[in-house]
TrEMBL record, chain B:
Keyword RNA-binding applies: no
One Pfam family this sequence matches: Cytochrom_C_asm
Keywords in alphabetical order: Cell inner membrane, Cell membrane, Cytochrome c-type biogenesis, Membrane, Transmembrane, Transmembrane helix, Transport
UniProt membrane topology term: Multi-pass membrane protein
Task performed by this protein: Required for the export of heme to the periplasm for the biogenesis of c-type cytochromes.
Location within or outside the cell: Cell inner membrane; Membrane
Stretch forming the signal peptide: none
Protein name: Heme exporter protein C
GO biological process entries: cytochrome complex assembly
Family in the record: Belongs to the CcmC/CycZ/HelC family.
Amino acid sequence: MAPTLFSTSRSVFLRDLTLAARKPADMITPLVFFSIVISLFPLGVGPEPALLRTLAPGVLWVAALLATMLSLSRLFASDYADGTLEQMLMSPQPLSALVAAKILAHWVTTGLPLVLLSPVLAIQLQLPTAAMPTLLLALLLGTPVLSLLGSVGAALTLGLRGGGVLVSLLVLPLYTPILIFGAGAVAASATGQNPEAYLSLLGAFLIMALGFVPFATAAALRISLD
Amino acid sequence: MNIINYKYAAPRNFYRLAGTLTPWFGLITAVLLGIGLYFGLFVAPADYQQGESYRIMFIHVPAAWMSMFVYMMLAGSGAVGLIWNIKLADMLATVSAPIGASFTFLALVTGSLWGKPMWGTWWEWDARLTSELLLFFLYIGFMALQAAIDDPRRASRAGALLALVGVLNIPVIHFSVQWWNTLHQPASISAINKIGAPAIHPSMLYPLLIMALAFTLFYFTVALMRMRAEILQRERHTAWVGEIAGGKA
Protein backbone atom coordinates (compact mmCIF):
# COMPACT_ATOMS: atom_id res chain seq x y z
CA MET A 1 0.00 0.00 0.00
CA ALA A 2 1.43 3.36 -0.98
CA PRO A 3 1.89 5.75 1.91
CA THR A 4 -0.84 8.37 2.08
CA LEU A 5 -0.56 11.93 3.32
CA PHE A 6 -2.08 10.90 6.63
CA SER A 7 0.07 7.81 7.16
CA THR A 8 3.26 9.73 6.33
CA SER A 9 2.42 12.59 8.67
CA ARG A 10 1.52 10.10 11.39
CA SER A 11 4.80 8.26 11.04
CA VAL A 12 6.72 11.58 11.20
CA PHE A 13 4.76 12.47 14.35
CA LEU A 14 5.31 9.06 15.98
CA ARG A 15 8.98 9.07 15.03
CA ASP A 16 9.53 12.41 16.79
CA LEU A 17 7.69 11.16 19.86
CA THR A 18 9.80 8.00 19.90
CA LEU A 19 12.99 10.03 19.58
CA ALA A 20 11.88 12.25 22.47
CA ALA A 21 11.04 9.20 24.60
CA ARG A 22 14.48 7.70 23.92
CA LYS A 23 16.18 10.89 25.09
CA PRO A 24 14.01 12.09 27.97
CA ALA A 25 16.69 14.55 29.14
CA ASP A 26 15.98 16.77 26.13
CA MET A 27 12.35 16.87 27.09
CA ILE A 28 12.94 17.52 30.79
CA THR A 29 15.48 20.35 30.43
CA PRO A 30 12.95 23.02 29.30
CA LEU A 31 10.65 21.98 32.14
CA VAL A 32 13.42 22.39 34.70
CA PHE A 33 14.27 25.75 33.14
CA PHE A 34 10.60 26.75 33.44
CA SER A 35 10.60 25.84 37.15
CA ILE A 36 13.91 27.55 37.90
CA VAL A 37 12.95 30.82 36.21
CA ILE A 38 9.69 30.93 38.15
CA SER A 39 11.45 30.13 41.42
CA LEU A 40 13.90 32.96 40.81
CA PHE A 41 11.19 35.62 40.77
CA PRO A 42 10.22 35.44 44.46
CA LEU A 43 13.93 35.59 45.29
CA GLY A 44 14.26 38.71 43.20
CA VAL A 45 11.15 40.68 44.09
CA GLY A 46 10.52 39.43 47.63
CA PRO A 47 8.15 36.84 49.07
CA GLU A 48 5.09 39.05 49.81
CA PRO A 49 2.05 36.97 48.76
CA ALA A 50 0.10 39.97 47.44
CA LEU A 51 2.96 41.02 45.19
CA LEU A 52 3.49 37.48 43.91
CA ARG A 53 -0.23 37.11 43.22
CA THR A 54 -0.12 40.23 41.03
CA LEU A 55 2.98 39.07 39.20
CA ALA A 56 1.95 35.41 38.82
CA PRO A 57 0.15 35.50 35.43
CA GLY A 58 2.89 37.49 33.73
CA VAL A 59 5.73 35.50 35.27
CA LEU A 60 4.16 32.15 34.34
CA TRP A 61 3.62 33.26 30.76
CA VAL A 62 7.04 34.86 30.28
CA ALA A 63 8.66 31.71 31.64
CA ALA A 64 6.56 29.59 29.26
CA LEU A 65 7.64 31.79 26.33
CA LEU A 66 11.32 31.46 27.25
CA ALA A 67 11.14 27.71 27.89
CA THR A 68 9.46 27.11 24.53
CA MET A 69 11.97 29.32 22.78
CA LEU A 70 14.91 27.42 24.25
CA SER A 71 13.46 24.12 23.04
CA LEU A 72 13.01 25.33 19.45
CA SER A 73 16.49 24.30 18.34
CA ARG A 74 15.43 20.68 18.91
CA LEU A 75 12.69 21.01 16.29
CA PHE A 76 14.80 20.66 13.14
CA ALA A 77 18.48 20.69 14.19
CA SER A 78 19.12 16.95 14.46
CA ASP A 79 17.10 16.15 11.33
CA TYR A 80 19.10 18.80 9.54
CA ALA A 81 22.39 17.37 10.80
CA ASP A 82 21.72 13.78 9.73
CA GLY A 83 20.03 14.55 6.42
CA THR A 84 16.50 13.45 7.37
CA LEU A 85 15.22 16.91 6.55
CA GLU A 86 16.47 16.73 2.97
CA GLN A 87 14.67 13.43 2.55
CA MET A 88 11.49 15.09 3.79
CA LEU A 89 11.95 17.90 1.26
CA MET A 90 12.12 15.31 -1.50
CA SER A 91 9.12 13.40 -0.23
CA PRO A 92 6.12 13.24 -2.58
CA GLN A 93 3.92 14.40 0.31
CA PRO A 94 3.54 18.16 0.85
CA LEU A 95 6.28 19.45 3.12
CA SER A 96 3.85 21.65 5.02
CA ALA A 97 1.94 18.56 6.25
CA LEU A 98 5.13 16.90 7.48
CA VAL A 99 6.17 20.16 9.13
CA ALA A 100 2.78 20.37 10.85
CA ALA A 101 3.31 16.83 12.20
CA LYS A 102 6.73 17.81 13.54
CA ILE A 103 5.32 20.96 15.17
CA LEU A 104 2.56 18.90 16.78
CA ALA A 105 5.16 16.47 18.14
CA HIS A 106 7.17 19.41 19.45
CA TRP A 107 4.13 20.75 21.25
CA VAL A 108 3.29 17.34 22.76
CA THR A 109 6.83 17.02 24.10
CA THR A 110 7.31 20.64 25.23
CA GLY A 111 4.12 22.66 25.44
CA LEU A 112 1.87 20.00 26.95
CA PRO A 113 4.28 19.13 29.81
CA LEU A 114 4.56 22.88 30.54
CA VAL A 115 0.78 23.11 30.77
CA LEU A 116 0.62 20.13 33.12
CA LEU A 117 3.40 21.48 35.32
CA SER A 118 2.07 25.05 35.48
CA PRO A 119 -0.53 24.61 38.30
CA VAL A 120 2.19 23.49 40.74
CA LEU A 121 4.26 26.57 39.98
CA ALA A 122 1.16 28.76 40.05
CA ILE A 123 0.54 27.62 43.63
CA GLN A 124 4.09 28.67 44.50
CA LEU A 125 3.25 32.12 43.14
CA GLN A 126 0.03 32.30 45.23
CA LEU A 127 -2.25 32.36 42.20
CA PRO A 128 -5.85 31.99 43.46
CA THR A 129 -7.28 28.51 42.92
CA ALA A 130 -10.21 30.00 41.05
CA ALA A 131 -7.86 31.12 38.27
CA MET A 132 -6.36 27.63 37.73
CA PRO A 133 -8.81 26.41 35.06
CA THR A 134 -8.26 29.61 33.10
CA LEU A 135 -4.49 29.20 33.41
CA LEU A 136 -4.69 25.67 32.04
CA LEU A 137 -7.07 26.60 29.23
CA ALA A 138 -5.07 29.69 28.24
CA LEU A 139 -1.83 27.70 28.17
CA LEU A 140 -3.53 24.91 26.20
CA LEU A 141 -4.57 27.45 23.57
CA GLY A 142 -1.40 29.54 23.68
CA THR A 143 1.49 27.07 23.83
CA PRO A 144 0.66 25.49 20.41
CA VAL A 145 0.94 28.99 18.90
CA LEU A 146 4.35 29.35 20.57
CA SER A 147 5.49 26.10 18.91
CA LEU A 148 3.98 27.16 15.58
CA LEU A 149 5.46 30.67 15.41
CA GLY A 150 8.73 29.37 16.82
CA SER A 151 9.04 26.84 14.01
CA VAL A 152 9.42 29.67 11.47
CA GLY A 153 12.33 31.09 13.44
CA ALA A 154 13.86 27.64 13.93
CA ALA A 155 13.60 26.91 10.20
CA LEU A 156 15.10 30.26 9.15
CA THR A 157 18.10 29.94 11.47
CA LEU A 158 18.97 26.33 10.61
CA GLY A 159 22.70 25.83 10.60
CA LEU A 160 23.55 29.46 11.30
CA ARG A 161 26.20 30.53 13.78
CA GLY A 162 24.73 31.86 17.01
CA GLY A 163 21.40 30.27 16.06
CA GLY A 164 20.06 30.11 19.61
CA VAL A 165 20.26 33.82 20.43
CA LEU A 166 19.18 34.71 16.90
CA VAL A 167 15.97 32.68 17.27
CA SER A 168 15.08 34.71 20.34
CA LEU A 169 15.45 37.96 18.38
CA LEU A 170 13.22 36.69 15.59
CA VAL A 171 10.58 34.97 17.65
CA LEU A 172 10.08 36.92 20.86
CA PRO A 173 8.59 40.06 19.22
CA LEU A 174 6.11 37.81 17.41
CA TYR A 175 5.18 36.17 20.72
CA THR A 176 3.99 39.41 22.34
CA PRO A 177 0.26 39.06 21.45
CA ILE A 178 0.21 35.58 23.01
CA LEU A 179 1.83 36.94 26.15
CA ILE A 180 -0.69 39.78 26.35
CA PHE A 181 -3.78 37.65 25.76
CA GLY A 182 -2.53 34.72 27.85
CA ALA A 183 -1.44 36.71 30.88
CA GLY A 184 -4.53 38.91 30.48
CA ALA A 185 -6.83 35.89 30.68
CA VAL A 186 -5.20 34.62 33.86
CA ALA A 187 -5.08 38.07 35.46
CA ALA A 188 -8.74 38.70 34.62
CA SER A 189 -9.73 35.39 36.13
CA ALA A 190 -7.61 36.01 39.25
CA THR A 191 -9.36 39.32 39.87
CA GLY A 192 -12.82 37.88 39.35
CA GLN A 193 -13.43 39.17 35.83
CA ASN A 194 -14.59 37.16 32.85
CA PRO A 195 -11.59 35.91 30.81
CA GLU A 196 -13.70 34.83 27.87
CA ALA A 197 -12.64 37.63 25.49
CA TYR A 198 -8.95 36.85 26.03
CA LEU A 199 -9.51 33.14 25.52
CA SER A 200 -11.47 33.77 22.31
CA LEU A 201 -8.61 35.89 20.97
CA LEU A 202 -6.10 33.18 21.89
CA GLY A 203 -8.26 30.66 20.07
CA ALA A 204 -8.51 32.92 17.04
CA PHE A 205 -4.76 33.36 16.98
CA LEU A 206 -4.31 29.59 17.22
CA ILE A 207 -6.60 28.98 14.24
CA MET A 208 -4.86 31.66 12.20
CA ALA A 209 -1.42 30.27 13.04
CA LEU A 210 -2.54 26.72 12.22
CA GLY A 211 -3.67 27.90 8.81
CA PHE A 212 -0.61 29.94 7.84
CA VAL A 213 2.44 28.77 9.74
CA PRO A 214 3.01 25.26 8.28
CA PHE A 215 3.30 26.81 4.82
CA ALA A 216 5.61 29.59 6.02
CA THR A 217 7.82 27.11 7.87
CA ALA A 218 7.93 24.80 4.85
CA ALA A 219 8.99 27.76 2.69
CA ALA A 220 11.61 28.73 5.28
CA LEU A 221 13.02 25.17 5.28
CA ARG A 222 13.29 25.24 1.50
CA ILE A 223 15.17 28.55 1.71
CA SER A 224 17.52 27.26 4.40
CA LEU A 225 18.27 23.98 2.60
CA ASP A 226 18.52 25.51 -0.85
CA MET B 1 9.51 49.50 -25.80
CA ASN B 2 9.89 46.63 -23.43
CA ILE B 3 13.64 47.09 -23.47
CA ILE B 4 13.22 50.53 -21.96
CA ASN B 5 10.93 49.29 -19.22
CA TYR B 6 13.13 46.42 -18.15
CA LYS B 7 16.44 48.11 -18.76
CA TYR B 8 16.77 49.32 -15.17
CA ALA B 9 16.13 45.92 -13.67
CA ALA B 10 19.76 45.16 -14.53
CA PRO B 11 21.96 46.21 -11.58
CA ARG B 12 24.50 47.79 -13.90
CA ASN B 13 21.96 50.15 -15.49
CA PHE B 14 20.26 50.84 -12.21
CA TYR B 15 23.61 51.80 -10.72
CA ARG B 16 23.95 54.56 -13.33
CA LEU B 17 20.33 55.67 -12.98
CA ALA B 18 20.65 55.85 -9.18
CA GLY B 19 23.83 57.86 -9.58
CA THR B 20 21.98 60.40 -11.73
CA LEU B 21 18.94 60.58 -9.47
CA THR B 22 20.65 60.75 -6.07
CA PRO B 23 21.78 64.42 -6.25
CA TRP B 24 18.29 65.53 -7.32
CA PHE B 25 16.59 63.58 -4.59
CA GLY B 26 19.13 64.96 -2.13
CA LEU B 27 18.56 68.51 -3.28
CA ILE B 28 14.76 68.29 -3.03
CA THR B 29 15.11 66.66 0.41
CA ALA B 30 17.31 69.52 1.63
CA VAL B 31 14.95 72.19 0.30
CA LEU B 32 11.86 70.53 1.78
CA LEU B 33 13.61 69.96 5.11
CA GLY B 34 14.61 73.64 5.17
CA ILE B 35 11.09 74.87 4.40
CA GLY B 36 9.43 72.39 6.78
CA LEU B 37 11.77 73.16 9.66
CA TYR B 38 11.51 76.92 9.14
CA PHE B 39 7.72 76.93 9.12
CA GLY B 40 7.53 74.33 11.88
CA LEU B 41 9.99 75.94 14.26
CA PHE B 42 9.57 79.67 13.53
CA VAL B 43 6.29 80.39 11.76
CA ALA B 44 3.81 77.96 13.29
CA PRO B 45 2.24 79.39 16.48
CA ALA B 46 2.89 77.90 19.90
CA ASP B 47 0.33 75.36 21.05
CA TYR B 48 -2.21 76.69 23.56
CA GLN B 49 -1.79 73.63 25.76
CA GLN B 50 1.72 72.39 25.13
CA GLY B 51 3.50 75.67 24.44
CA GLU B 52 6.69 75.38 22.43
CA SER B 53 7.45 71.78 23.28
CA TYR B 54 4.93 70.44 20.79
CA ARG B 55 7.34 71.46 18.01
CA ILE B 56 9.18 68.16 18.39
CA MET B 57 6.11 66.78 16.60
CA PHE B 58 7.59 67.96 13.29
CA ILE B 59 10.34 65.37 13.72
CA HIS B 60 8.56 62.79 15.81
CA VAL B 61 5.44 62.22 13.71
CA PRO B 62 7.18 61.96 10.31
CA ALA B 63 9.76 59.60 11.85
CA ALA B 64 6.98 57.40 13.22
CA TRP B 65 5.18 57.40 9.89
CA MET B 66 8.38 56.52 8.07
CA SER B 67 9.16 53.70 10.50
CA MET B 68 5.97 51.97 9.35
CA PHE B 69 6.26 53.00 5.68
CA VAL B 70 9.80 51.63 5.43
CA TYR B 71 8.73 48.31 6.98
CA MET B 72 6.03 48.05 4.31
CA MET B 73 8.63 48.85 1.64
CA LEU B 74 10.92 46.24 3.15
CA ALA B 75 8.25 43.55 3.21
CA GLY B 76 6.87 44.55 -0.21
CA SER B 77 10.20 44.55 -1.98
CA GLY B 78 11.19 41.40 -0.09
CA ALA B 79 8.05 39.70 -1.42
CA VAL B 80 8.79 40.89 -4.97
CA GLY B 81 12.31 39.52 -4.67
CA LEU B 82 11.06 36.24 -3.23
CA ILE B 83 8.38 35.68 -5.86
CA TRP B 84 9.96 37.01 -9.07
CA ASN B 85 13.59 36.59 -8.07
CA ILE B 86 14.50 40.20 -8.81
CA LYS B 87 17.90 41.09 -7.42
CA LEU B 88 17.19 44.81 -7.10
CA ALA B 89 14.11 44.18 -4.97
CA ASP B 90 16.19 41.97 -2.64
CA MET B 91 18.75 44.72 -2.35
CA LEU B 92 16.12 47.37 -1.65
CA ALA B 93 14.80 45.28 1.24
CA THR B 94 18.29 44.77 2.63
CA VAL B 95 19.31 48.43 2.43
CA SER B 96 15.96 49.68 3.78
CA ALA B 97 16.23 47.83 7.09
CA PRO B 98 18.87 50.02 8.80
CA ILE B 99 17.15 53.19 7.53
CA GLY B 100 13.80 52.02 8.90
CA ALA B 101 15.40 51.01 12.18
CA SER B 102 16.94 54.49 12.42
CA PHE B 103 13.56 56.15 11.85
CA THR B 104 12.04 53.90 14.51
CA PHE B 105 14.82 54.76 16.92
CA LEU B 106 14.38 58.46 16.18
CA ALA B 107 10.63 58.18 16.80
CA LEU B 108 11.31 56.42 20.12
CA VAL B 109 13.89 58.97 21.28
CA THR B 110 11.82 62.00 20.28
CA GLY B 111 8.74 60.36 21.81
CA SER B 112 10.65 59.92 25.04
CA LEU B 113 11.91 63.53 24.96
CA TRP B 114 8.39 64.76 24.29
CA GLY B 115 6.98 62.52 27.00
CA LYS B 116 9.10 64.13 29.73
CA PRO B 117 7.45 67.60 29.64
CA MET B 118 4.00 66.31 28.62
CA TRP B 119 3.49 63.18 30.72
CA GLY B 120 6.21 63.89 33.29
CA THR B 121 8.06 60.68 32.47
CA TRP B 122 10.69 59.57 30.00
CA TRP B 123 8.92 56.36 29.22
CA GLU B 124 5.24 55.59 29.31
CA TRP B 125 3.90 52.15 28.33
CA ASP B 126 1.62 53.90 25.93
CA ALA B 127 0.14 51.73 23.18
CA ARG B 128 1.77 53.59 20.32
CA LEU B 129 5.15 53.82 22.00
CA THR B 130 5.08 50.13 22.85
CA SER B 131 4.20 49.00 19.35
CA GLU B 132 6.92 51.26 18.00
CA LEU B 133 9.37 49.54 20.36
CA LEU B 134 8.24 46.13 19.10
CA LEU B 135 8.61 47.35 15.51
CA PHE B 136 12.17 48.32 16.41
CA PHE B 137 12.79 44.77 17.63
CA LEU B 138 11.35 43.39 14.37
CA TYR B 139 13.83 45.52 12.40
CA ILE B 140 16.69 44.34 14.60
CA GLY B 141 15.64 40.71 14.10
CA PHE B 142 15.56 41.20 10.32
CA MET B 143 19.03 42.75 10.29
CA ALA B 144 20.46 40.14 12.67
CA LEU B 145 19.12 37.31 10.50
CA GLN B 146 20.58 38.78 7.33
CA ALA B 147 23.89 39.47 9.05
CA ALA B 148 24.13 35.85 10.21
CA ILE B 149 23.75 34.41 6.69
CA ASP B 150 26.79 34.58 4.44
CA ASP B 151 25.13 33.62 1.16
CA PRO B 152 23.41 36.82 -0.07
CA ARG B 153 20.70 34.89 -1.90
CA ARG B 154 19.68 32.90 1.16
CA ALA B 155 19.96 36.05 3.29
CA SER B 156 17.54 37.92 1.03
CA ARG B 157 15.03 35.12 0.85
CA ALA B 158 15.14 34.36 4.58
CA GLY B 159 14.80 38.04 5.39
CA ALA B 160 11.87 38.44 3.02
CA LEU B 161 10.01 35.52 4.59
CA LEU B 162 10.61 36.91 8.07
CA ALA B 163 9.39 40.34 6.96
CA LEU B 164 6.22 38.82 5.51
CA VAL B 165 5.48 36.93 8.73
CA GLY B 166 6.18 40.19 10.55
CA VAL B 167 3.76 42.14 8.35
CA LEU B 168 0.99 39.62 9.03
CA ASN B 169 1.74 39.93 12.72
CA ILE B 170 2.05 43.71 12.98
CA PRO B 171 -1.72 44.39 13.06
CA VAL B 172 -2.17 41.69 15.72
CA ILE B 173 0.70 43.08 17.76
CA HIS B 174 -0.63 46.60 17.42
CA PHE B 175 -4.17 45.76 18.50
CA SER B 176 -3.04 43.46 21.29
CA VAL B 177 -0.85 46.23 22.69
CA GLN B 178 -3.71 48.71 22.44
CA TRP B 179 -6.03 46.27 24.18
CA TRP B 180 -3.46 45.57 26.90
CA ASN B 181 -2.85 49.23 27.52
CA THR B 182 -6.47 50.33 27.73
CA LEU B 183 -7.31 47.61 30.23
CA HIS B 184 -4.31 48.20 32.43
CA GLN B 185 -4.22 51.95 32.78
CA PRO B 186 -6.15 55.00 31.64
CA ALA B 187 -5.32 56.11 28.13
CA SER B 188 -2.73 58.82 28.00
CA ILE B 189 -2.70 59.26 24.26
CA SER B 190 -5.00 62.26 24.27
CA ALA B 191 -1.97 64.48 24.82
CA ILE B 192 -0.47 63.40 21.53
CA ASN B 193 -3.59 62.90 19.53
CA LYS B 194 -2.02 63.33 16.12
CA ILE B 195 -3.97 64.33 13.05
CA GLY B 196 -6.85 62.24 14.35
CA ALA B 197 -10.04 63.54 15.88
CA PRO B 198 -9.25 67.13 16.87
CA ALA B 199 -8.69 69.25 13.77
CA ILE B 200 -5.14 70.51 13.58
CA HIS B 201 -4.66 74.08 12.48
CA PRO B 202 -3.32 74.48 8.92
CA SER B 203 -0.37 76.51 10.21
CA MET B 204 0.81 73.36 11.98
CA LEU B 205 -0.54 70.81 9.49
CA TYR B 206 1.29 72.10 6.40
CA PRO B 207 4.77 72.12 7.96
CA LEU B 208 4.03 68.62 9.24
CA LEU B 209 3.07 67.38 5.78
CA ILE B 210 6.13 69.07 4.24
CA MET B 211 8.32 67.38 6.84
CA ALA B 212 6.69 64.04 6.07
CA LEU B 213 7.43 64.52 2.37
CA ALA B 214 10.99 65.55 3.18
CA PHE B 215 11.49 62.42 5.32
CA THR B 216 10.10 60.24 2.52
CA LEU B 217 12.48 61.77 0.00
CA PHE B 218 15.31 61.46 2.50
CA TYR B 219 14.56 57.75 2.71
CA PHE B 220 14.69 57.39 -1.08
CA THR B 221 17.91 59.40 -1.30
CA VAL B 222 19.66 57.29 1.31
CA ALA B 223 18.17 54.09 -0.12
CA LEU B 224 19.51 54.95 -3.58
CA MET B 225 22.96 55.68 -2.14
CA ARG B 226 22.98 52.44 -0.18
CA MET B 227 21.68 50.54 -3.22
CA ARG B 228 24.66 51.75 -5.22
CA ALA B 229 27.05 50.52 -2.55
CA GLU B 230 25.17 47.23 -2.28
CA ILE B 231 25.25 46.72 -6.07
CA LEU B 232 29.01 47.27 -6.15
CA GLN B 233 29.43 44.89 -3.22
CA ARG B 234 27.35 42.10 -4.74
CA GLU B 235 28.58 42.53 -8.32
CA ARG B 236 32.22 43.03 -7.35
CA HIS B 237 33.42 40.13 -9.47
CA THR B 238 31.94 41.49 -12.72
CA ALA B 239 33.85 43.33 -15.40
CA TRP B 240 31.92 46.61 -15.22
CA VAL B 241 32.54 47.04 -11.50
CA GLY B 242 36.20 46.36 -12.18
CA GLU B 243 36.22 49.20 -14.70
CA ILE B 244 34.62 51.60 -12.24
CA ALA B 245 37.06 50.61 -9.53
CA GLY B 246 39.86 51.28 -12.00
CA GLY B 247 41.44 47.91 -11.39
CA LYS B 248 41.93 45.06 -13.77
CA ALA B 249 38.61 43.59 -14.86
